[in-house]
Amino acid sequence: MLSQASRQNVLPHPALTRVGHEFPKPVKPVRPVRQLLNPGDEIMLDDHAAQLRRVVEGCVVLYQLLPDGRRQITDIIGPGGLFGCQQEDRYNIGARSLTYTKIDLIDASSAPGLASGAALEALQRLRHHAMLLGRMTAAERTASALLELAQAFARRSTSQSGRKVTFTLYLTRGDLADWLGLTIETVSRTLNQFKRNGLIEYRHTGIVTITRPEALAAIAAGECK
Amino acid sequence: MLSQASRQNVLPHPALTRVGHEFPKPVKPVRPVRQLLNPGDEIMLDDHAAQLRRVVEGCVVLYQLLPDGRRQITDIIGPGGLFGCQQEDRYNIGARSLTYTKIDLIDASSAPGLASGAALEALQRLRHHAMLLGRMTAAERTASALLELAQAFARRSTSQSGRKVTFTLYLTRGDLADWLGLTIETVSRTLNQFKRNGLIEYRHTGIVTITRPEALAAIAAGECK
DNA sequence: CGCGAGGTTGACCTTTATCAAACTGTGTGG
DNA sequence: CCACACAGTTTGATAAAGGTCAACCTCGCG
Fold first, then answer.
1. Which nucleotide has its C1' atom closest to residue B196's CA?
2. Nearest nucleotide to A140, CA against C1' atoms
3. Sheet holding A82-83, edge to edge
4. For residue B146, how many other CB atoms are within 10 A of its CB?
């Protein structure tokens, strides 16, 4: 499914070129094992040794599948985020990289509080997301999603003028749909409506600018009409 | 909001009558602090000392509110279940008892692994619930909910004939709706359709019998039509 | 007996899904 | 370099699931 070897040439991970620079210098603390992933790579969650993982760069999504193929993305992890399937899931859980991604493997035993702290944060995020999935409209979900993604993937804005935020949108419309419990078409329509109303800007999907964060926040909070 | 003192007379907790029996005998291990709650009681999640709680008897729901009052129930805790707001939530999180409920307060520091284990389990449950909210139909959600509740609140069946399960349904239609991301009316219609089709039985809401668990499971798994 | 909370049912309507077609941008091979 | 294939996106027409509104029922309780 993920002919990684064959694509390695086609899609060389940019960071691979730096490996030569990184390995020589000996570091005092335990060097974490680092994984380099290409877009679309499946991440094995074997959970040997209760591995915890930190996204150093890039974007990872966690998802679950229904027997008939329906997919629900349950979390999106950006730089600095922790994840890991800390116990046998009786549900079909998967993780996948959406771009060129660097991940550090962390030995959970070496950082006792880290894993449980990460679990609690994930729980909080997921509770909020349950609220979104169960009780918000398409516009509210989309606005909320944009603000969350901007938070996690914001680019250093060249001009700090205004409170505009620009971020890299690693998710396709399909990913957004599977995250927000909507269809591709509804996501596309909602996004374009936001664009037409001047709340956001984008030319090529992949880089989005939030031009009116307050307005988006108001929509996300259900204060529209 | 929860004039508990004034309702104490009106709705005396059945277990209160036994308090006299329980206090006298000295117990060797640390006696857990026990709370007795009436139906509808709000549970304070102050989180002083990172309290963890175990439901001994009864039913507790965790929920979140949107500014305009929309509610999403994010978890349902039955006997043996653990919960507790282990860290400041930036979202409005609440907990409420749905019946006469006994809760033990557990000092999290006395049971280090317990809290994180509970968090992980909650995370798993919630991931599944996110899938339910984002990707399942009303019938699938309702079937799934019935099976889950039967699991958590099953009564010792008098006759072990067949694989029927009878359980106490502590949730109102409104609670079910807020848990499943539906409306009261849709929950009512779906339940009655299940009843008409002979999948479940109930005379007075409050006690439900699942007469054809396999059929419900098939619906929950999306294998219908 | 009457009240109120919760439940059911029906008619109708809105939101969002579905289906279909066309468009865009990018990499591929002639 | 251009035609092509493709993956992803947009847009429109239509349909269905579920929401909304309203009436009525049921039961427990004062």
1. C8
2. C15
3. A33-37, A101-106, A52-57, A82-83
4. 26
Closest by CA position to A87, among listed A44, A47, A42: A47
Rg of chain A (C-alpha set): 19
| Protein residue closest via CA to C1' of D10 | A188
Three-state SS at A201: strand
**pLDDT for A35-75, tens place per residue?**
999 999 999 887 665 688 999 999 999 999 999 999 999 99
| pTM score, whole prediction | 0.87
Taking residues B120-125, report their average pLDDT. 93
Query: What pLDDT does residue B98 have?
Result: 97
> In terms of CA atoms, which chain B residue is nearest residue A131?
B72
H or E element, residue B64: strand B60-65
Strand D: list positions under 7 Å from protein Cβ. Answer: 8-13, 17-22, 27-28, 30
Distance of alpha carbon A89 from the chain centroid: 21
Q: B128 vs A64: CB contact, 8 Å cut-off? A: yes
- Those nucleotides of strand C lying less than 7 Å from any protein Cβ are 6-11, 15-20, 25-28
Instruction: Say yes or no for a CB contact (<8 Å) between B131 and A221.
Output: no
For residue B224, the chain A residue with the least C-alpha distance is A68
- The residue ranking higher by pLDDT, A39 or A12, is A39
pLDDT (tens digit per residue) in B126-135: 999 999 999 9
At B186 the three-state DSSP class reads helix
